[in-house]
Fold this protein.
Amino acid sequence: MDEIAQLGEMLRQHALSEEHKKRQFDEQTAAWAASIVQLYANIEQWLQPVRSEGLLEVQREPYIAANAVFAPTVSPFATEKLAITVTGKTIELVPEVMGAKGSITISVVGLPSDRYGSISLICLPPSTEWSWRKDRGINQPDLFPFTADFFALQLQSLIPKVREPSEPN
């Protein structure tokens, strides 16, 4: 085989490989977006009883997840962020760019974490289950299944404690 024919074969193989990678990336990106939509729908359903009474607010707003590789102007990660307002405090669920093997991370902003910690929700495909992740420095992160009851407990931490007046002696 002459070198031109070899070059042609190499370029065809490269094009096929790039096409496969792009198709796989597009499929993972679509699954990433669908997973976030489903998570937000679950949260809205969980909170509906207190939301319908006007005790908290839930709002979605368009959001483009970006990072150093994907600037907002070219990012394929179009989704939404979710804001929950409880007792005047807003908690935002902000998606991050899809990670390795399609992993999904959503930063949870506005809930108290231990000093210098962070809270996020993670989903590692092919699983569709979300976990609550609390990072505190060099320690292993704490992981908990993200359920309606667990989330309600986290939101309860935002409600100021009512102190009963003490009885005079």
Observations:
- The chain has a mean pLDDT of 88.
- The chain has two helices and seven strands.
